[in-house]
Write a sequence for this structure.
């Protein structure tokens, strides 16, 4: 009865035929006529994870690692680039000149108006009509905040005789106010707003001691209720006197200026180009009954105005 063939559980590694023929001697039969066993194979040079590595392979691997390291260093150097050049004064001057040539800055008058605008308010005085029932507008003017608690300077003739005084702040907040002080000789009234914005800005004040004819000034207010509006001009004179057309008011020590002012500007600030208040606009000179500006306006010096609220002199 034939016996089944038996197979080894592992196969020996195959060698190329040429190598096998070159390394192995031809078998010879022994005395019994049986072929001798083949000599053992030589040990591998090195192993790594089951893979045989020759010395030539190891040298090639280290060469590749060195090449990759060199490439990495070169890449980092290229990304970093050369050290930045130090900025010189010539670079700064050139950048400033280029900006001035390509950008139009706001005028000095525009900067002054922008600086003072958050402190300027619209003031309206209301009274009873002829029938005694209907509320009517009696006077429209301007005011300026001089203390951030809501203390406002304006002209007395804007609010005198009013039953109710309405204030509109720069941010649009509308509220009422009360008269807390008056200085008739300078046509000034002090108002206290009943409600104020959270970020109310008080106007900076400046002494008139160094004010000279020819100095640039800006008048900010609500001419004919329109505004806030700004007009620019210069100081025309100092220590002027003014008598109202009706002869009811005699004012002295006034600042004369030629920035356009009209009804509604009364009580507004006259400011320097630095945005600092030097006076409170109070009157315009016009020999006709038109009540329009012809080039001469008057303002009460801020020293007089500040004394109306008990502020210390400069």
């Amino acid at each position: 009865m034939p016996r089944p063939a038996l197979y080894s559980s592992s196969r020996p590694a195959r060698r190329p035929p040429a190598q096998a023929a070159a390394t192995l001697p031809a078998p010879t039969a022994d005395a019994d006529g049986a072929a001798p066993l083949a000599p053992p194979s030589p040990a591998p040079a090195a192993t790594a994870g089951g893979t045989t590595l020759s010395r030539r392979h190891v040298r090639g691997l280290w060469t590749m690692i060195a090449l990759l390291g060199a490439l990495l260093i070169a890449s980092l150097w290229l990304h970093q680039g050369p050290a930045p050049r130090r900025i010189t004064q010539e670079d700064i001057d050139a950048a400033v000149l280029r900006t001035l040539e390509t950008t139009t800055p706001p005028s000095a008058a525009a900067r002054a108006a922008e600086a003072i605008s958050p402190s300027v308010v619209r003031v309206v005085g209301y009274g009873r009509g002829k029938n005694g029932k209907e509320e009517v507008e009696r006077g429209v003017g301007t005011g300026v905040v001089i203390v951030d608690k809501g203390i406002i300077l304006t002209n007395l003739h804007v609010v005198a005789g009013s039953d109710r005084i309405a204030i509109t702040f720069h941010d649009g907040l509308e509220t009422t106010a009360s008269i807390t002080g008056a200085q008739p000789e300078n046509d000034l009234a002090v108002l206290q707003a009943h409600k104020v914005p959270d970020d109310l800005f008080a106007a900076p004040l400046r002494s008139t001691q160094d004010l000279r004819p020819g100095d640039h000034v800006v008048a900010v207010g609500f001419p004919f209720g329109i505004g806030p509006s700004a007009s620019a001009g210069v100081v025309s004179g100092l220590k002027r006197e003014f008598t109202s057309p009706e002869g009811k008011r005699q004012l002295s020590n006034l600042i004369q200026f030629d920035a356009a002012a009209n009804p509604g500007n009364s009580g507004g600030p006259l400011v320097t180009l630095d945005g600092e208040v030097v006076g409170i606009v109070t009157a315009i000179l016009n020999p006709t009954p038109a009540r329009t500006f012809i080039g001469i306006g008057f303002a009460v010096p801020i020293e007089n105005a500040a004394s109306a609220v008990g502020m210390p002199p400069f």
